[in-house]
What we know:
- The chain is an alpha+beta fold.
- It has 2 domains: 10-98, Phosphorylase Kinase, domain 1, CATH 3.30.200; 102-280, Aminoglycoside 3'-phosphotransferase, Chain: A, domain 2, CATH 3.90.1200.10.
- The protein has helices spanning 10-20, 59-70, 72-76, 112-126, 137-149, 157-169, 214-217, 225-235, 242-262, 266-280; strands at 24-28, 37-43, 46-52, 83-87, 92-96, 101-102, 178-180, 189-192, 195-198, 205-207.
- The protein is globular and about 55 Å long.
Amino acid sequence: MNWSGGVLDSAKAERVTRWIGESELVANLSWGLVDTVVLHVRSPVGDVIVKTAGPGNHHIGREIAAHRGATEPLVAVGRTSRMLHAEGALNLLILEYQTGVLAQGSGLELSADIHRQAGAMLRLMHSAAPAPGGEDYVRSILDRASRWLATEHRIEPELVRRSAEILESASARPVRLVPTHGDWHTRNWLIDKGFVKAIDFGRFAYRAASSDLTRLAVKEWRGRPDLEHAFLDGYGDDPRDPELWRLELLGEAIGTAAWAHQVKDDEFEAQGHRQLGEALALF
């Protein structure tokens, strides 16, 4: 049995020891829905976060990519952690430990100031160098949503038919791509002495800036236009194009309903079905 109590296999546990010395497991912070493992570890270099996953999991690779450039504006102002070590072949990385409590469930997740800070932080990340290849962005949304519809889910047949018709008839066009977090909402914000910090870049990719607003729009901002206004005030403007926005919401809803069903998260699946009805109403 290694220092992780068997949470990590011997190769990963040994690699962590080689990087940061003899370590002690403080807490297993994993969500448990997928095979991503998140450990709070105490080591000779201080407290750190160790993240890893199985070979078929792409989230660790995305997080490593994010921390190799896109997160630098946030690191510079103390709003996210630095990556200390990474090994893509092992799907393993080590990050600085950030103090604070999750915004979600803290009682502050519906604070206008928290959303204003989060908007300003997101703008820092989005302001990094854009990426080429935006010609295929809309097509990727349509194709991904169609693939989700072809998997196992419990979406009503009529909603599947309507969604498929929209996806098949939508037109692709060039879109400016920026570095995006991919899961930007209160579950991935820490609050530390009134300041917001960002965690979990496992869905990092170059997308339209508006894509980082989809999860807030269907959850925290529902019935709270004041939070939306505060966020956009921090961000500096509204990056949403109406035609692209409704396609992003539709794709997000389909993916949420199907993925949540497949991992047996009934509450999240119900949210996905609600999102889908609201997204279809926009067309």
